[in-house]
Specification:
- The complex is a heterodimer.
- Chain A is mainly alpha-helical.
- Chain A folds into 2 domains: 75 residues, no CATH class; 216 residues, Orthogonal Bundle (MetI-like fold).
- Chain A has 12 helices and 4 strands, in the order αββαββαααααααααα.
- Chain A has a two-stranded antiparallel ribbon. A two-stranded antiparallel sheet of chain A has the order 3-4.
- In chain A, helix 2 packs across helix 12, helix 3 packs across helix 9 and helix 5 packs across helix 7.
- Chain A is flat, with a radius of gyration of 25 Å.
- Chain B is globular, with a radius of gyration of 23 Å.
- By secondary structure, chain B is mainly alpha-helical.
- The longest helix of chain B is centred in the N-terminal third of the chain and has 32 residues.
- Chain B contains 11 helices and no strands.
- The chains are: A mainly alpha, B mainly alpha.
- At the A-B interface, helix 1, helix 3, helix 4, helix 5 and helix 7 of A face helix 1, helix 3, helix 4, helix 5 and helix 6 of B.
Chain lengths: 306, 266
């Protein structure tokens, strides 16, 4: 006869087996329609481009070489691919500037919400959440209508008499920056607010009792305490900004490419799938690096985010 | 008059917050206003009219894309919610067991990878399958949407489960209820708000997707967002404003419902 201990171990084993069966459908769907295909991208980045798109199954390092370098057609020498380097630099620069811009606006906003009465907080939070869940394309389109030459900003400035001709904002890097800062702003406010909500204002009071100025309280007490939220928000903004596709294609007007547009180009007119695959993996590596910074910094501290 | 010293005050913060809310809503308000513009110009105001809504309603491409969007979003959201509920039941209310961390990571994986990369990966993978199988229907889009909806459906369901203890289920088992009966009559009714929240979240996420759909769709499989992207690239008409306005209204209704359902914790 089996001892009680054996029965118990068997029950635990059965429980674990059931739990694997129960989670299998979700894991399989994700494996076949999300994670698995990423491995194929890696394989494709080492193949030769086919003449009409797709690939030929011969090994080649060419795609990876041409991520940053370009081969001279005449003498086969390698030099920096200035077009690619420019696009990489623009993507990183715009993503970073977006992060800073959303932080500068988002931090005071999160502070404002956190210092409201408990009842009205929900309403303010709701007002941040609505744009967060509305379609990103529609929000980008809304920005486009505001900043174009016939848009409300230019019209107003001309009417007041500050400028005589419309300022060309649309189809510039500035337009992409404005658009990304606009669409990703809620992603900065929400996690900062989550940290700020838990802030103990007795510490702030103690600071003032010790003759700290407003700035010292902000810098030495509030900021260090909500730092996990600030880091979470920055990462949550930086990651989608680096890989942004919709905003640069709508507001950049096809001239000011970002990484995702460059990738798309390889699968369209460029007909260089291996290069597209290599670029995709490069973007993924940048994102993973950012995530690693996030995990390192927050560790096990619970920061709520969506 | 001297104001009392408030420890919560920071100079300029309220002004920035006010600007932030104004900036968040101003473009949306302008967009909605121009949807009701009688003039066909997108910059001049010609009085209030519903003609752009009418013209969108009578545009076969718009109707077609809208129906397709709903079909994909409904199917993907339901599938994602079912598998996410099962996965949530399997990953909560238990002592840590081998593979639990792996499951968390796997379920959240679609959130970690930029959409453009997933889009490219699925384009490559599905184009191979299309050649072998000859099938090029909506199945690919539904599979892709289901996969990236799973983490969103999983989130509220898991949150709800973690707040439920096992007492009631144990009581049911003590009263000789079979596991299936316990699930049907005890767990499911308690979990229902979480499931509903997950379903709505998944539906909105699927409905909003542009990037992955843009890469996965075959010819003639435009969803509403990809149709709109194509139109915006070609030049804008107030018809896009009208479609956006209807879309916004739908999103706001769903988000408001979601907000109320997830508030009702107890």
């Amino acid at each position: 006869m089996a001892s009680a201990e054996q029965v118990a171990t068997q029950a635990v084993r059965r429980d674990i087996r059931d739990r694997w069966l129960l989670s299998a459908p979700a894991l399989l769907v994700i494996f076949f329609a999300a994670s698995g295909p990423l491995l194929i991208v890696l394989v494709y980045s080492f193949l030769t481009p086919g003449p009409y798109g797709d690939v030929q199954w011969t090994f080649s390092k060419e795609a990876w070489t041409s991520v940053f370098l370009e081969r001279d057609i005449f003498d086969d020498t390698l030099s920096f691919a200035s077009a690619h380097v420019t696009i990489f630099w623009r993507s990183l620069k715009l993503a970073l500037m977006t992060t800073i811009a959303t932080l500068l606006i988002g931090f005071p906003t999160a502070y404002f919400i956190a210092t409201r009465s408990e009842k009205s907080r929900d309403l303010w939070l709701f007002l941040i959440t609505i744009p967060f869940w509305t379609n990103l394309l529609i929000r980008t389109f809304a920005v486009l209508q505001i900043i174009r030459n016939e848009g409300i900003i230019n019209t107003a400035l001309i009417k007041i008499g500050i400028i005589s001709a419309p300022i060309q904002i649309l189809y510039t890097d500035t337009a992409i920056l404005i658009g990304m800062a606009y669409v990703y702003l809620p992603l900065m406010v929400l996690p900062i607010y989550a940290s700020m909500e838990k802030l103990d204002f007795r510490l702030v009071e103690a600071g003032y009792d010790l003759y700290a100025t407003r700035w010292q309280v902000l810098r030495r007490i509030i900021f260090p305490l909500v730092k996990p939220g600030v880091i979470a928000g920055s990462i949550l903004v930086f990651i989608p900004a680096v890989g942004a596709y919709v905003t640069p294609s709508v507001l950049g007007g096809g001239k000011n490419l970002m990484l995702s547009n460059l990738i798309e180009l390889q699968f369209g007119q460029g007909r260089n799938w291996p290069l597209g695959a290599a670029l995709s993996i490069t973007v993924m590596v940048i994102v993973m690096a950012a995530l690693l910074v996030y995990v390192r910094n927050t560790g096990s501290s619970e920061t709520r985010h969506g | 008059m001297a104001r009392g010293f408030s420890i919560k005050h920071q100079p300029g913060f309220t002004a920035i917050a006010a600007t932030c809310f104004a900036v968040l809503y101003m473009p949306i308000i302008v967009l909605v206003a121009y949807a009701f513009n009688a003039s066909s110009s997108t910059s001049e105001w010609g009085g209030v009219s519903l003609k752009w809504f009418q013209s969108a309603w009578n545009n076969d491409q718009v109707v077609d894309a809208t129906l397709r969007s709903f079909q994909i979003a409904a199917t993907a959201a339901i599938l994602a919610t079912i598998v996410a509920t099962m996965a949530a039941l399997a990953t909560t209310r238990t002592a840590p067991y081998p593979g639990l961390t792996f499951k968390y990571a796997a379920i959240n994986q679609p959130l970690m990878v930029p959409e453009i990369v997933t889009g490219v990966a699925l384009l490559i993978f599905f184009s191979r399958i299309k050649i072998f199988s000859g099938y090029s229907g909506l199945g690919y889009l539904i599979a892709a949407h289901t996969a990236f909806c799973i983490p969103f459906a999983y989130l509220p369901i898991r949150a709800r489960l973690e707040n439920m203890d096992l007492t009631l289920e144990r009581a049911a088992a003590d009263l000789y209820a079979t596991p299936l009966k316990t699930f049907r009559h005890v767990t499911l009714p308690l979990l229902w708000p979480g499931i509903l929240a997950g379903l709505m979240l998944a539906f909105v996420i699927s409905l909003d997707d542009v990037v992955i759909t843009e890469f996965v769709k075959s010819g003639g499989q435009d969803t509403l967002p990809t149709y709109m992207l194509g139109q915006i690239r070609r030049g804008i008409t107030p018809e896009i404003n009208a479609i956006s306005t209807a879309f916004l209204l739908l999103s706001i209704v769903i988000v408001t419902l979601f907000f109320f359902i997830s508030r009702k914790r107890d």
